[in-house]
Amino acid sequence: MKDTDIKRLLYTHLLCIFSIILSICIPSFFLENFSILETHLTWLCICSVSVTAVNLVLYLIVKPNASSKRSSISYKVTRFLKCCIYFLMSCFFFHVIFVLYGAPLIELVLETFLFAVILSTFTTVPCLCLLGPNIKAWLRVFSRNGVTSIWENSLQITTISSFIGTWLGAFPIPLDWERPWQVWPISCTLGATFGYVAGLVISPLWIYWNRKQLTYKNN
Amino acid sequence: MQKISVLLFLAWVSFLFYAGIALFTSGFLLTRLELTNHSSCEEPPGPGSLPWGSQGKPGACWMASRFSRLVLVLVDALRFDFAQPQPSHGPGEPPVSLPFLGKLNSLQRILEIQPHHARLYQSKADPPTTTMQRLKALTTGSLPTFIDAGSNFASYAIVEDNLIKQLTNAGRHVVFMGDDTWKDLFPGAFSQAFFFPSFNVRDLHTVDNGILEHLYPTMDGGEWDVLIAHFLGVDHCGHKYGPHHPEMAKKLSQMDQVIQGLVERLENDTLLVVIGDHGMTITGDHGGDSDLEISAALFLYSPKALFPRVPPKELEIVPQISLVPTLALLLGLPIPFGNIGEVMAELFAEAEDSQPHSSALAQASALHLNAQQVSRFLHTYSAAAQDLQVKELHQLQNLFSKASADYQRLLQSPQGAEAALQTVITELQQFLRGVRAMCIESWARFSLGRMAGGAALMAAACFLCLLVSQWATYPGFHPLLLTPMACGLAGTIVCAGLLATTGLKLDPVVLGAMAAVGSLLPFLWKAWAGWGSKRPLAALFPTPGPVLLFLLIRFAAFFSDSFVVAEARATPFLLGSLILLLVAQLHWEGKLLPPKLLTIPRLCFSASTGQSRHSGTHALGLGVGLLLCIRLAGLFHRCPEETPACHSSPWLSPLASMSFLLLHLLAAGIPITTPGPFTVPWQAVSAWALMATQTFYSMGHQPVFPAIHWHAAFVGFPEGHGSSTWLPALLVGANTFASHLLFAVGCPLLLLWPFLCESQGARKRWQHLGNEAEARVRPEEEEEPRMEMRLRDAPHHFNAALLQLGLKYLFVLGIQILACALAASILRRHLMVWKVFAPKFIFEAMGFIVSSVGLFLGIALVMRVDGAVSSWFRQLILAQQR
Asked: Chain-wide mean pLDDT for chain B?
């Protein structure tokens, strides 16, 4: 592992953060009455799209893992379709989890689903970009001693911090402060976003601090 | 370690908690100081001449009596809108069809025909709106405090000065009929009484019909000066059906007929008072402080004209206790000593006398008497207790002396302008209202020392649980066990002996706390001495893990009223998180899924891979099932009153939730697949305790008093219980704390379950799984999985494990009660303390007591079974040898 790798990681992460900031700032020039809290669903869609796009572009440019040997068009198309299906499945999976955690079942379905979409964007999309539609690799990355590169390590950190942010985001909901951001699912989506950004910031730093201890066999 | 010493130790730890809870409760739920002073005719409330015209007249005391007789009709739970006159609707509008509206037609008719004779008020009761507290307030004129709310089952005689006592002292004949709560409150005070049982909430008619049987004959008989009739039908109808039921219309119509009949029989010197002691919520319950509960109707009528003016368009709102001084002065009695109500001045304006000046003077003199009495009470009270705020007290006294001086000046020069009189009246009213506000403010008096002591004792007991649960598995621990009990017992006996000899009176609560501290300190000292020399201290404390974080979050959540109210949703959230965390942790350790799914071979697995592969997928399924159960159980919640937007579940029937309870129990196997033998991990214990709370909510309970399921008292006793109060209390308690009891008794399952689960694996698995030592001892004979028999083989470890389990469970529960206590004490001036924190503390304390008793029973049961099986085995072996 070289310092250049860590630098590249840092730059990509900064770009991701930048895309989130842009998704907050840019739409207000084009859309009237745009604000995160009031037109929350719109912002969710925009943020999700921009983060996905940035992730894809970065993946295509940086190519963190060795490209597969087969590169026929049909293989790429099936791979892409598989990725889409995985993404949708993860959205539904998160939706079910939210409902199990106490989200309303029938009311606010759209809100809950978009929340699932944004959480999938923060967690599943980077996984798909980095590991491809390969459940086994995912399971490997999220277990002890399972990571094989700094990219996977940072993926682990950002994903877990996104989940923790989402989880913490649920706590203000019962409080009686009567703030607009306490409405379901705004606090949770904001928590997820903060968690994701925090993960993006923390992971290069953490890897940099621990670069002596980290050894990846397959790298 | 002996079984008996384990049980004794657990009992001792529970006792520590009880002592802490009792000490805290005695400091937190203090009652107002009850003064036993009495007002009397001979002793006017203050210096200065008594109002003109009072001396020399027969039946006059502080003031000349205006009525010689009184009929007080107390209709329990007569909410204000039940009696509110309905505007006559035009032909186009549809008539209002609510069953409780516009049923008291006679009131409306009287108010229209005789506006100078009758008046309807909206009276505001002070919380708690339970019948006994209201009766106390309505006779003493004071503010009953929270602690009385719990003693509704066994009420006690009123020691403070009250109207009934004044009436008896004045030699009036008081006849009572109705609710038998009065019998306990005023034993032997009535010259004639017809009591009817009040507890059977299902029974709408016994009390009312009983009253009606005696009411008119008594009235016509004339052997009475004051007649009190307490009707319960409306209240019971509310409890049974709620106000939106046709039965309520019938009941109110019956009350209407009663009032009609009374009005026809009234003589000129008689005053009729119809009052509701409190209101009811839309579900027909009461006890809290919502608007519907505290608004009650108050109706006054006299055959001779009472009021100089016609009633104003807007109905007046008066505090309920205003009735006490008003009635006292109208009947020519001294105002009860502890009264802080304000006379309704309007009633003292002479109606026949058209002169505005003399009418205002009469009002001012009544108010002045009232203010003198309140000021005397304040003086006596602040000398006896220090809980009233000195600064405010001083201000009020200044206000009173100024008003009093003004009043005296006006008396000397009777030609004074009416405007000056009005100022005096306003000043006196200001004083009386200020006193009332101050009393409401400060009559939640806390004893900080006791609260701190109780909280410290609970914290120490929690700490002890934590420590000993770590020690319990180390050898050489048991000799410590019996010393604290001996010390504590000896200390208590010595203390009690000393007290008996000196004749000092000491609180049993303080004595208990002293015993607890006296036993705790030697134990810790001895443990410290025994420990410190041998091993490093770091081994004493459990390593902090995510579970401790969960416990911390739970601890912190008790400090927010929003989280206490939303606990029914927060608990499943935490429980779900705990389960998912467990699954994630299993996966992280590589124990959840079979290794062939994971492509990298260098991942090292523990030796028991083969075993955990099977149980891993099993655990995943169980986890999902448990999450589903928790979410579905959320459908059985009941709405707390603080969240108006929420709808209670239509499936609120206890029977249906029982099946979910069973599901819970089955699915609770999940946290159990992880532990190694002989210890139960913190995750499992915390999840178990959370599950107990969750079940409490999914059985339709809420930690507030109006939500208690009183109907449970009638299960199996549809006819009621007669005079016994223990049985219904027990039934209601069993209904409310069923989940605590079940989960506590079932707690040893956490230890036994992993061994039972072994039977699911086939025999071949046993060969790998069995513990190595035993496999070596008897490798060939092992054909059946031995399951929990392994526990029996090592009785010492078994006992230690049971002790550890019990202590861990007590620790988790103790943390909750400690958090409740701390929250209640820190936030004791919070707006929500009587509505949220105090009820939560009481419920949590009751739950803790029930749980600890249940835990004790459960562990004793397991030990008993173990002992029986052991003796049976011995017999078998003996028989074989023969």
From this structure: 77
